[in-house]
């Protein structure tokens, strides 16, 4: 049986990047939306940011996840993955709450993936995402595939190679991350369109 592959569109990468850039000293998380073809190729097309005040699997997390799932369905997509960035730039471990959320996503999508942002690669031309795969419904580990993720021949690819550099440029030159809002922000200001974040896209 073929193993799944994952391709990340620029829009999805930008949103993950903006979320981490807007709250550099806080943990942030969200979900990834996409589609899958008959060959198990997963196309990650969008990201929906959830929280930047999370420490546990809270009711707000559950509500945000449900709303993101409904939004995915209305856009002919599925929730196919989870992402998080940690408080420390050198921390690329998937938090226990992240494992739980990723496990919930996997219950609805067998080939679910999780990514942790590598803060030390933000602002570089390299992908700042560390993929985690599930070894059981409640256990996730960094992928140990060869070739390395996002290198030629890997099962993990960016749709456009220049995406990391472009994301850094959009933050540095246009401050688009300040226009970005997550579910936490929406709870404080209901005019914030956290599900789509159209105002922060180039």
Automatic annotation (TrEMBL):
MPN domain segment(s): 6-138
Pfam families cross-referenced by the UniProt entry: UPF0172 (PF03665)
GO (cellular component) term, any one: EMC complex
Family annotation (PANTHER family): ER MEMBRANE PROTEIN COMPLEX, ER MEMBRANE PROTEIN COMPLEX SUBUNIT 8_9 HOMOLOG
Protein family membership: Belongs to the EMC8/EMC9 family.
Name the record gives this protein: MPN domain-containing protein
Source organism per UniProt: Gymnopilus junonius
Lineage: Eukaryota, Fungi, Dikarya, Basidiomycota, Agaricomycotina
């Amino acid at each position: 049986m073929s193993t799944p592959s994952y391709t990340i569109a620029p829009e999805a990468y930008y949103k993950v990047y903006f979320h981490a850039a807007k709250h550099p000293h806080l943990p942030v998380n969200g979900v990834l939306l996409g589609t899958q073809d008959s060959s198990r190729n997963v196309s990650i097309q969008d990201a929906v940011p959830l929280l930047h005040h999370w420490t546990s699997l809270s009711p707000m997390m559950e509500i945000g996840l449900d709303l993101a799932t409904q939004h995915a369905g209305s856009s002919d997509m599925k929730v196919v993955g989870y992402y998080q960035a940690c408080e420390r730039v050198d921390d690329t471990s998937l938090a226990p709450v992240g494992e739980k959320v990723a496990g919930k996503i996997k219950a609805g999508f067998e080939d679910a993936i999780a990514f942790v942002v590598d803060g030390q690669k933000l602002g570089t031309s390299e992908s700042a995402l560390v993929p985690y795969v599930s070894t059981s419904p409640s256990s996730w580990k960094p992928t140990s595939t060869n070739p390395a993720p996002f290198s030629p021949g890997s099962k993990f690819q960016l749709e456009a190679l220049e995406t990391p550099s472009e994301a850094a440029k959009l933050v540095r030159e246009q401050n688009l991350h300040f226009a970005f809002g997550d579910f936490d922000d929406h709870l404080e200001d209901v005019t914030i369109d956290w599900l789509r974040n159209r105002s922060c896209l180039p």
